[in-house]
Amino acid sequence: MDSQKKINIVALIGESGSGKDAILNWIVSRCPELNKIIGTTTRPPRDYEIDGKDYHFIDFLNFNYKEAYNNFLDVEVFNDWHYGISIDDLDPEKINIGVVNFQAIEQLYRDNRVQVYTVFINAKDKTRLLRQLNREINPDCNEIVRRFLADREDFNYCDLHIDLTIDNEDTFEIAYNAAPLVGFISSLEGNSGNIS
After folding, report:
1. Which residue blocks in the chain are alpha helix, DSSP H?
2. pLDDT over 90 (residue 98)
3. Which listed residue, 60, 81, 186, 192, has the most CB atoms within 10 A of its CB?
4. Are 167 and 128 contacting, i.e. CB atoms less than 8 angstroms apart?
5. CA distance 32 to 95
6. 55 bridge partner residues
């Protein structure tokens, strides 16, 4: 990789249940020229998660090895589980797009290997809670409430440089809600005809 060339990242951020993953999956399914960022974690997968699609699920030893060799752009710890974005999962020739949490975004801003464009996905509290409750057959309500409150706190203290805000409510099709992101990515590519 050319030491002068930064890797482009479109970071989707937002509170739990705002629809970040739905928008991400919708846009990457229609845009093969984008590289979907898949994070790495030491926590076990949730009921609906698939290794290599939702996260790379690895053990602590492998995670620590990668971290020791500066392989991660960010590292966070939640409930004793480690999370990170590996530089190996990024494509320097494409726009890389993925969901990023509030702690990670500040680390990405400081990493001189990447150029970060921040897209904030916004949704009303009721919409967010209903999405989280409906996501699993037997949702962990305590964990949903914990994440809900933690996100609110994190958002208040995070130093964000937001390039685009999307209001993602259930009153419209996902294509309608994602339309501003399509236009934004097209402007980054310099070719508005690539995404449909």
Report:
1. 20-30, 60-68, 102-110, 125-134, 141-157, 174-189
2. yes
3. 186
4. no
5. 10
6. 39, 51
Give the residue among 68, 81, 74 at the shortest CA–CA distance from 37: 74
Q: Confirm if 107 and 158 have CB atoms less than 8 A apart.
A: no
Q: Round to whole Å and give the CA distance between 2 and 194.
A: 25
**Dihedral over alpha carbons 184, 187, 191, 192 (to 10 degrees):** 50
Proportion of the chain above pLDDT 90, given as a percent: 44
Res 193: pLDDT: 42
% of the chain with per-residue pLDDT over 70: 93
| Euclidean distance between CA atoms 139 and 105, whole angstroms | 27
> What's the pLDDT tens digit per position in 155-181?
776 678 899 999 888 767 888 888 899
- With bands split at pLDDT 50, 70 and 90, how would you rate the model's confidence at 192? very low
pTM: 0.83
Tell me if residue 135 falls in helix, strand or coil.
coil
